[in-house]
């Protein structure tokens, strides 16, 4: 099998590290070799964070080279651009369209050009799926489940090394029991969003 | 149970793998101070300490941690001290002497390096520190290898009676890998007792020191032999078509497929070239060669200090050029260059001294690809600075070499195979800058804000320190004029006050840092009659590294109850007469207390106590009343909570009516009420349940 490369981008505190763990555990359960790499430490305080997940038979470093990611998941709109150079020309992206405006933008120290970003992403056609995962998570009752909504959407893409069942199973194993129900709702909401976005037939 | 069957593969983070390696090696005492990227090693061990009869602690600092481990080792128990690279600076005093005196039970230091750096004040290379201390270093490339190397390190430590450093970098420490692994069987408890035996060999006096220094120098060669015997360094098998080959780099744990030290059947596609790679850089080299589809023999260095250079020189004997790839400092390169010169080996050495690879930052496959490509296509090694006994480079050669030596940087290497193929057309817009910042509702923000209100008009100097509150330096607060290292805020404020007594000097440091290294400079400030204010930002945890306990909290790393050391009482004990505690969520009270503290003609200590938002439940989110808001922007531009944002014509938030210019992201608001206190128009209040 060719190596499957997944990038998960987001803002510190959004749960990107957990999402990458879930995917990695699912791939491990599916019998693959796995490498992940995460940003931990200062960036966790509202900084840009990128996780790399590599799944396959022949793996070296945990960092995905530029232009080699099969899928980019971004938990925040603008962070998708940070992960963008990693995406392969044929790669797909699932992006939470909800912006988190850094205070530096309000202070005029940097520009958050939402319109330009959305415009760029829309030009990418079918391979980019923009969804409001935060809204879905808030509807369920907790913005912290945005990562699980995104995993649900991810699970509807074709060509993954894992099925939706495997992903949810891995999530369930990692989550504390009191959070399982709300996260299951989030994952299911993500799957509905994914299939509405006409990404692909449901896996499994 | 079937003992032959391979244990199931589990996902292990490098730091967890290190912890398990130590537990498998029978470690009995582990002491550490948290620091990214090393923290999870000790967290994992603390979690299992009870079942394996391990004594584990979060010490107040790295020096104390190492000294705790030394005591254990000298009883004969295996011991480990864990820290990040800057932590080793703090522990360097006992380490230098320990190198002379040696160990009894195996003593391993885990020192995690942070090239980048991602979360550190410096990018210092612990291998250089090890050279300075003349101690062996093992440099794992993967979590799996880290686990094996920790076990090897304990063995080496006991075999040669020296402390051994294992140095994972961020991309080993924080990488997860599938590892065939099952926790070792739990021992019968209690473990057999150990006891310290008196011996003049544990007492460093100048006469003994001279003797032990000679011994330390003498065993350097034994260290090299040990590395080779245990196959920590060697020629990696070629990365050819054998898809079944284990992707794990050669290491102690590898099977017969990895024939170390046997170069006989290497692919000869580029027969006169070779690569030497150390640490995680080895992975990037192998992946780069895979991408380019070429086969060049790679000599993998897992034990870089002291480097067994002779076998590498033998390996390079028939080559015309070698590429040396290691992150950070040219540690392998310099040792190898000396040996090559000494033995009259003449070949081009491409690396950091030739100007082809940077001495800063992290490496990755993208950064190496252009260099590997040039190396293979002959354009470098013909022009590199030739190295050989009788043939020093002419100045003309040097000029050519300089011109050729374009160091690779993340910028110059941005285009790669796939992207360069031209399938991408549209250029993405520039993403906004997103630097880390204090959390929404972080009590430190209120403390900084209060002191800015109380003192910035008086041109007060703010000395900062290491922790989450380092982020107080970020705009809009800009509440740190200096930041050096743990504890420096206190000594520097006191020092400044001696030189510019007409200015208020305010030091900020956290509760954990206060215990780590805030007390001695506080004693000094009182003793030297400085005039300064120390603000202890007491959020009841060690937040930045993931919320470890400290002596002020009444519980230990294992969760057991412990005596509570009261920061205010310690400050009074240090001779401080003005000591107060305030709740920073009450900004007016904090400003008032700040003013009083600043008026005090001596050393004053204000403890701003309020729990880190990550440890307590959030309360009612706040909202901005668009009718009352006068758009002054103070909450946004002076206070700067990340839950606040400016509303332009965004599709989200409260901007739809076109009136409000500032809004609160409901899902981020912690409900601390800080912005409500800051707003001069009383436009912000808790949401009312509808
Ligand atoms: S983790 Fe705690 S201390 Fe650190 S920025 Fe957030 S609230 Fe403040
Ligand atoms: S109440 Fe105000 S300052 Fe506090 S978290 Fe919410 S928006 Fe931020």
TrEMBL record, chain A:
Pfam families xrefs: POR
Sample GO molecular function, one term: oxidoreductase activity, acting on the aldehyde or oxo group of donors
Sequence ranges assigned to domain Pyruvate/ketoisovalerate oxidoreductase catalytic in this UniProt record: 12-191
Gene3D superfamilies: Pyruvate-ferredoxin oxidoreductase, PFOR, domain III (3.40.920.10)
Segments passing through the bilayer: none
Keyword Oxidoreductase set for record: yes
Record InterPro entries: IorB_Oxidoreductase, Pyrv/ketoisovalerate_OxRed_cat, Pyrv_flavodox_OxRed_cen
Keyword vocabulary terms for this entry: Oxidoreductase, Pyruvate
Protein name listed in UniProt: Pyruvate ferredoxin oxidoreductase
Species assigned in the record: Heliomicrobium gestii
Lineage summary: Bacteria, Bacillati, Bacillota, Clostridia, Eubacteriales
From TrEMBL, chain B:
Reaction catalyzed: indole-3-pyruvate + 2 oxidized [2Fe-2S]-[ferredoxin] + CoA = (indol-3-yl)acetyl-CoA + 2 reduced [2Fe-2S]-[ferredoxin] + CO2 + H(+)
Iron-sulfur is among the record's keywords: yes
Cofactor note: Binds 2 [4Fe-4S] clusters. In this family the first cluster has a non-standard and varying [4Fe-4S] binding motif CX(2)CX(2)CX(4-5)CP.
Cofactor(s) listed: [4Fe-4S] cluster
Span list, region Disordered: 403-422
Binding of [4Fe-4S] cluster 1, residues: 629, 632, 635, 679
Residues annotated for [4Fe-4S] cluster 2 binding in this entry: 641, 669, 672, 675
Sorted UniProt keywords: 4Fe-4S, Electron transport, Iron, Iron-sulfur, Metal-binding, Oxidoreductase, Pyruvate, Transport
Listed Polar residues bias regions: 406-419
InterPro entries in alphabetical order: 4Fe4S_Fe-S-bd (IPR017896), 4Fe4S_Fe_S_CS (IPR017900), HACL1-like (IPR045025), IorA (IPR017721), Pyrv_Fd/Flavodoxin_OxRdtase_N (IPR002880), THDP-binding (IPR029061), TPP_enzyme_TPP-bd (IPR011766), Transketo_C/PFOR_II (IPR009014)
Domain of life: Bacteria
GO molecular function terms listed in the Swiss-Prot or TrEMBL record: 4 iron, 4 sulfur cluster binding; indolepyruvate ferredoxin oxidoreductase activity; metal ion binding; thiamine pyrophosphate binding
The 4Fe-4S ferredoxin-type domain, residue ranges: 620-653, 660-689
EC numbers on record: 1.2.7.8
Annotated CDD domains: TPP_IOR_alpha, TPP_PYR_PFOR_IOR-alpha_like
Subunit structure comment from the entry: Heterodimer of the IorA and IorB subunits.
Protein function: Catalyzes the ferredoxin-dependent oxidative decarboxylation of arylpyruvates.
Name by which UniProt lists this protein: Indolepyruvate oxidoreductase subunit IorA
Taxonomic lineage: Bacteria, Bacillati, Bacillota, Clostridia, Eubacteriales
